[in-house]
Amino acid sequence: MSENAFPTTKTKASENFERSDWSSAYSNVDKEFSNFELKAAKGAIPKDLFGTLYRNGPGRLERNGQWVHHPFDGDGMITSLRFEEGKANLTNRFVRTKAWQEEEKAGKFIYRGVFGTQKAGGALSNAFDLRLKNIANTNVVLLGNELLALWEAASPYSLDPRSLDTHGISNLNGVLNPGEAFSAHPRFDPGHNNQSRMVTFGVNTGPKSTIRLMEFSTQGDDAGVLISNRKDTFNGFAFLHDFAITPNWAVFLQNAIDFNPLPFIFGQKGAAQCLSSSKNNKGRFLLIPRDSGCYALEPPRIFEAPDGFVFHHLNAWEENSEVVIESIFYNDFPSIQPNENFLEINFDEIPEGILKKCRINLLNKNVTTEVLSNQCCEFAMVNPRMLGMKARYSWMATAQKEHGNGPLQNIKKFDLFNSQKHIWSAAPRGFVSEPIMVPTSSSNEDDGWVLTVVWNGERLASDLVILNANDLSEQAILELPLAIPHGLHGSWVEG
Ligand SMILES: [Fe+2]
């Protein structure tokens, strides 16, 4: 298969989108732009949008005719979209990771991927190669003066926030040990305990798992300085992709997952393909006290979690004696097995994400669960000023249909108090990515903009869509000069 080509995939009669439109997003990014000025193809860029949207996701999916087994194994490619005075420009760069540079030179994959990409030569040539390929492809955030490209199983890569030039792996001024895991899901505390912070974690997992909880200042000259640090060890394997914060707690859901590493060791599967839902264990909520809160120095508290698997949480808050957390639950761990082709996913056969709310009672230890919406969703957020508090509004990506699984084609504003919703749809030929809500200076929780990169199956390229956060009315569409594969996470940096 030639570079940048993608296999044709068939559409099921019951689907209301063309599979080839969805899969056409999966191609190698073959251009890098610097300060490319963007024009609005529709509408106008809001004049009060002042800052930079950073996006991360897999940008290299094929080498020498070999495709990654799962797009999550694609090398990280950062896109920045800078907005100022009604104008926007785009810069994009691959993260120059050690593995990316080596594979560029070799012209082929020379590392295995966690999600099943193997080196050529079958199990024999993959067995006992347990090196981790840090692909820096999951999220991108600014901490102090470092733009960090994040991948949860290893340390971050540091980039220049404007040029996106790669400086190299960062140990965050000595905070991280060589190779130490650093989550791709930091949470930005807007200042619950009188100081805005970036709260994040790293997990060292095994039969026992240790969570290192870290809090960094994000204010003034201290931005990037570690101000809080604790380690707690729990029984069991812990697959922790995300977490949530409240003023007093860091809230984790330890999924009921078993890990059988043998197929990975013997070269038959990627490490993440060795995860499966546990038949014997229950998931657990792990509540770790934050050092800035009123339970500082106390031990963690553990509660039984409902069945299901969670990658992402929406938000958490405290209410009387309860910690409340909203999360996207799957009824099983979604994986792509060695004999499956990700381009031919049958959406009907893989579990969909359902938004649920769990109330954890700290006094009687009861946990109750409520479904908030049955519509398949992912990538949900609240107004960042409401993080850790009881927020009314949320914005998320959803399938177009009301029930069952499907590709993400809608942006939904969802009222968490009364279930009212607004929908903006890119269907039938468009496919959305994570929406980022950018608040204005107004005190109304839903005043602001929603930014999302949309795969345009007609143009075979990506668009940046700007919506009014209040009613999701379309503000502007910018046609990007890039074809960006379906991506992962990003962030907004004001100013
Ligand atoms: Fe994530």
Question: Can you walk me through this structure?
Answer:
By secondary structure, the protein is mainly β. Helices cover 5% and strands 42% of the residues. The chain has one domain. Strand 6 and strand 7 form a beta hairpin. The longest helix has 9 residues. The N and C termini lie far apart (44 Å). The N terminus is likely disordered. Bound molecules: fe (ii) ion (FE2). Fe (ii) ion binds next to strand 22. This is Retinal pigment epithelial membrane protein.
- Kindly state the mean pLDDT as a whole number? 93
Count of helical regions: 4
Q: What structural category characterises the helix and strand content? A: mainly beta
* N-to-C CA distance: 44 Å
Low-confidence stretches: 1-14
Strand proportion, as a percent range, falls in 35-45%
Global outline: globular
What's a quick, concise take on this entry?
This protein has helices spanning 19-23, 98-106, 122-126, 262-265, and strands spanning 36-38, 40-43, 51-60, 62-63, 66-67, 75-84, 87-94, 139-143, 146-150, 157-159, 166-169, 187-189, 197-204, 208-217, 226-235, 244-245, 249-254, 257-259, 275-277, 284-289, 301-304, 309-319, 322-330, 354-361, 367-373, 377-381, 393-399, 408-415, 421-425, 430-432, 436-439, 448-456, 461-468, 474-479, 490-494.
Q: What secondary-structure arrangement, pairings included, does this model have?
A:
Layout: H1 19-23, E1 36-38, E2 40-43, E3 51-60, E4 62-63, E5 66-67, E6 75-84, E7 87-94, H2 98-106, H3 122-126, E8 139-143, E9 146-150, E10 157-159, E11 166-169, E12 187-189, E13 197-204, E14 208-217, E15 226-235, E16 244-245, E17 249-254, E18 257-259, H4 262-265, E19 275-277, E20 284-289, E21 301-304, E22 309-319, E23 322-330, E24 354-361, E25 367-373, E26 377-381, E27 393-399, E28 408-415, E29 421-425, E30 430-432, E31 436-439, E32 448-456, E33 461-468, E34 474-479, E35 490-494
Fe (ii) ion (FE2) is lined by residues 185, 241-242, 311-312, 489.
